[in-house]
Amino acid sequence: MSRFMIVGLPRSGTTYLMSLLNSHGDVLCAGEQFNPHAIIDTSGPQRERADLVARDADPVGFLNDFYASRAGQAKAVGCKWMIGHHIEILNHIPTDPELRLIYVWRENKLAQTASLLKALKTRQWATRHADRVDDSPIDAGPFQVMQRAREAQIQDATFQSWLAQVPNPVLTCEYRAMFQPGFEEKLCDYLGVTFNPEMRSPLVKQGSSDILARFEKKKAVAAYFTQIGRADWLEPEL
Questions:
Q1: Residue 21 has pLDDT above 90, yes or no
Q2: How many domains does the chain have?
Q3: Distance between CA atoms of 186 and 199, rounded to whole angstroms?
Q4: Domain interval for residue 191
Q5: CA separation, residue 81 to residues 24, 60, 145, 196, 207 (Å)
């Protein structure tokens, strides 16, 4: 059994990747085991408060138990670790060099920020139903948006510097690459499982491909990002 962990920032495509992996019969990706508010587990029962306390008292032991308890369930088993989750896991990863990492990042920080602001407003982080997508524009000005975008840039740069130093295998995926031909084959090869041509994510895209259409203050956002040399972020991402 190969063990893996998806790492990245919110709204970078980690949930899409998780759902894509779970469409493969030999792969199990169990979700955010270290979410501060809950143990988000697609492969097990709902956890109680006592489970959260036990996890937070010994995060590394919890992680080891997670992998051990799923031995034999799939040929590749993993979960997600996100910015804001337990630092003990971040410190533990380099001590377990056989743990494979899949790092997801998003170059278009305007699209990523728009997605984050919408999710924070609606509390809908993913959906399989196109008729449930909230396409109302976001009421946020360009400086508020850019502050969030800069924070994500810095976090990604810090993450990339850390990943360059760990002994673990690392597969880096930019958001758009996950929708290109051949990505599924590359992913399966990395995890050591046979390619399944039927792999599909059931999730639907929640944001418009027209990035400006996501904002209420379209003219202000367009003018600002053009003036600071980031007009490329205004272009369709996919």
A1: yes
A2: 1
A3: 12
A4: 2-234
A5: 20, 12, 25, 25, 24
